[in-house]
Amino acid sequence: MELRVLRYFLAIAREENMTKAASVLHLTQPTLSRQIHQLEQELGTTLFIRNGHHIFLTASGMRLKQRAQDLVELADRTEAEMKQKDEIIAGEISLGIGETVNMVFLSRVMRSLQARYPDVVFSVYTAIADDVICRLD
User: Fold this and answer.
1) What pLDDT is attached to residue 92?
2) For range 58-69, the mean pLDDT
């Protein structure tokens, strides 16, 4: 089972039409049909119910759709991570701070950092100084 063919499968499931999916994928309709037929043979099950110009998922097709979405998403994330620099900045930053006027400035900085490093998560606890100290302890 190839990732490329799973992408084809997902396009057909999304478009519910073989011709539209072929157009979106920039393939000919016979090529796409052949790939899906081979996938069905490989898996030993029918994935689609063909009804005129519309195509619907079978129960097996629905199960494969969920798995295929997970696999394609994981492959895309992995590829993106590999293309990034070796130093990926990620993790949780926990802040315990008193309530001050500087919260506006701090929230802007946090938003800017999160836009630049989407894998960074902030956990902020605000209260009076004594409560913050107790919470940090």
Assistant:
1) 86
2) 94
Instruction: Quickly tell me which residue has 């394609």 as its tokens.
Output: 72
Closest by CA to 122, choosing from 103, 98, 94, is 94
Q: Residue 124: left if φ>0, alpha if ψ -120 to 50, beta else—which one?
A: beta
Q: Report yes or no: 131 and 97 within 8 Å, Cβ to Cβ.
A: no
What is the pairing mode between strands 54-57 and 48-51?
A: antiparallel
pLDDT tier at 137, thresholds 50, 70, 90: low
Q: Count the neighbouring beta carbons within 10 Å of the beta carbon of residue 86.
A: 5
Q: Tell me which residue has tokens 């590829």.
A: 79
Taking phi over 0 as left and psi of -120 to 50 as alpha, with beta for the rest, 56 belongs to beta
pLDDT at res. 7: 94
| Beta-strand pair 120-127/91-98 | parallel
